Amino acid sequence: MTSTKPFLSALRGEAVQPAPIWLMRQAGRHLPEYRELRKNAKNFLDFCFTPEMAVEATRQPLRRYAFDAAILFSDILVIPHGLGQNVAFREGEGPVLAPVRSLDDIEKLQLDGVNDRLAPVFETVRELATTLDDNTALIGFAGAPFTVALYMIEGRGGTEGPNIRRWAAEKPDEFGRLIDLLCEATANYLIAQVEHGAEALQLFDSWAGLLPESLFRRWIIEPNRRIVEKVRDVYPDIPIIGFPRNAGVLYRDFAKQTGVSGISIDAGVPMDWAASELQPICTVQGNLDNQILLCGGEILDAEVRRIVDGLSGGPFVFNLGHGVLPPTPPEHVGRVVELVRQQTA
To answer: Residue 333: in which H helix or E strand, if any?
Structure first.
């Protein structure tokens, strides 16, 4: 039976009224209840790998905002952890990894048994799948290979990626070994999420915009295409959203060539271009500026209305151009939900 959940209907190419809404990083530090919950975990990975806590974190924004989709509470760096890389999250600093910088480092990674080491994530998915209401879809996710590789190679985020960009350009065969490994691990991880109840998937390629066109095609489009293909070999009908952030006009080729059901766009993409160039290919998801969400007030109202007016005539899911910022007042998020629910094309 085809689901009537608004979010899934939109990903099937329907123009749903009002547009379904969820927000990237909707579960997190902007919520006081999340901050209280976080105090109970030894560290962030412990939080992600404790199903009771991860389920609660996933459900918290649903209680406040009644979003149309829940997204699994986890992190893109569970894959490097599952491969055997040393991953830590330090307060005030974010993720810190033992850098992968050579073929020897790649060969030390262990593909066998990754999903066994990530079993708590699947337990979280299963629990969520059995407890969400009939109108709320469950999104599973993973980081796309280039973005995950950036953290693995640089050893942290918040960087322009000098080491990964040089390695990808100068020694593509070596770098390709890591990308191949990540494609396999990521596809298997996503398939397992669907097995346990995820109804849609999102691939986050947050650092895609660092690459020039030729490298974008090789290290962004092609790995995402391979993962979509591998997942669809097992689950042909699973909706998959791609998010190659800051891809510019290359969003169009990404959407065409990867086979994604939806394309999540950053805040810099013009509405008329997204409507004319992307919506005929797949569902568009986006793209409110998270700084404007933080600001609130008249500019927030105007931007929400502009985005809905520009995209709700076609298949569309309202979201941000990137994740909710930690200082964002919850009432600003509530206001966005209110406005989206009021709007029609």
So the answer is: helix 330-342
End-to-end CA distance of the chain: 28
Which helix (DSSP H) or strand (DSSP E) does residue 79 occupy?
helix 78-83
* C-beta separation of 200 from 239 below 8 A: yes
Determine the average pLDDT of the residues in 134-158: 96
Indicate whether 157 pLDDT > 90: no
Tell me: domain 6-14+27-278, CATH 3.90.79.10, correct?
no
Q: Does the pLDDT at position 344 exceed 80?
A: no
How many helices (H) and strands (E) the chain has is answered by: 18, 9
Active-site residues, by number, are 25, 29, 38, 75, 151
User: Which residue in 95, 74, 57, 71 sits closest to 7, CA to CA?
Assistant: 71
Cα 75 versus chain centre, distance: 9
Outline where DSSP puts E strands in the chain. 69-71, 87-90, 94-97, 137-143, 200-205, 240-244, 262-264, 283-288, 316-320
Sign for the CA dihedral angle at 31, 37, 39, 45 comes to: negative
Instruction: Give the tens place of pLDDT for each residue, 92-129.
Output: 778 999 999 999 999 999 999 999 999 999 999 999 99
pLDDT tens digits, 232-241: 999 999 999 9
pTM for the model stands at 0.97
User: Which token pair is 134?
Assistant: 């009939």
Alpha-carbon distance of 168 to 207, in angstroms, equals 14
Beta-carbon contacts of 180 under 8 Å, excluding residues fewer than 6 positions away, are none
Strand partners, 288: 320
- Is the pLDDT assigned to residue 345 strictly greater than 50? no
